[in-house]
Amino acid sequence: xxxxxxxxxxxKANWLLANPVIxxxxxxxxxxxxxxxxxxxxxxxxxxxxxxxxxKPSRITDDGFWEIYNPSTDEYVKTSHKAVPTDVQVAVKTNxxxxxILTFTYASGSFDTPNLRGQDGATYDDTSIRDALTALQxxxxxxxxxxxxxxxxxFNEIIAFLASVEDTxxxxxxxAGLNQSITNVQxxxxxxxxxxxxxxxxxxxxxxxxTDNNYSNEEKTKNAESVRFKDITVATTLTNLPVxxxxxxxxxxxxxxxxxxSTPAEGWECMIDIKNTGSSDITQALPNATGWQCxxxxxxxxxxxxxxxxxxxxxxxxxxxSRGN
Length: 325
What we know:
Elements: E1 8-10, H1 12-18, E2 27-30, E3 36-38, E4 50-51, E5 59-60, E6 65-70, E7 75-82, E8 89-95, E9 100-106, E10 109-112, H2 127-144, H3 148-163, H4 171-188, H5 217-226, E11 232-235, E12 247-252, E13 269-276, E14 282-285, E15 292-294, E16 298-301, E17 306-314, E18 317-323
Parallel strand pairs: 1-2, 11-12, 12-13, 15-18
Antiparallel strand pairs: 2-3, 3-4, 5-6, 6-7, 8-9, 9-10, 13-17, 14-16, 17-18
Helix pairs in contact: 2-3, 2-4
């Protein structure tokens, strides 16, 4: 919307009769002579000099000060009066996920804006907005429904509005349009939290339950892998061990060749705990053939004791770490 700036103006005689003190940097106009003066906040009107005489008006310098034309030297003289106010400052007071407030500071004080970010989904409640719109719509309906008491109460509130109505418009048509606009706004207002879109695109509802149906296949795989630590595979041999679980518990009374039933995914690992249930020590061989890597050839498992083997599949190689007893 365009902004109109209008100077104070009066005839020369009236200015001299009132003879007020003109505020600093305020420009006032003599409507009958076309001349103007700029106040300094101290002198009365009669004591101020005219500006822009001899057909050359005052002008503003690049740094925002007034320059006055001096006809005796045919030059402009820079004054100490600022033409552009610099006493208004704006600063961010609060800026976080739910609140954005600015502070405006000027010569006579300061004020804070309302929360410009609005409310997030967790606290959003549109009841007051809907109630206010409903009350306004009922008030407008009262003007055309024959309810005289409501219409009289509302009359003074719409006088200013009627003053701007053009002859080509009808009151009934204007009110009908307002009613429709209000209805459109009411329909557009969210009625439940799930209709809101928050900054992080999540539903802000403490009672919301994220079911398995909301996960992608990749997320389901990751979720399944994260709970494998509690699942244990039980076996009586080290040969053709399954790769589904992280933890494998094996009981042996004699050595057996270590191998897996299938090739696991890159980065897979498992922990094999071997208990010797026999009456004599077991010398368990560890694989070092192609596709395997181990720093030892074997481990010894004493009778009735437990040894551990850690296996990790990386770069297409089974890396074996052992701990005997």
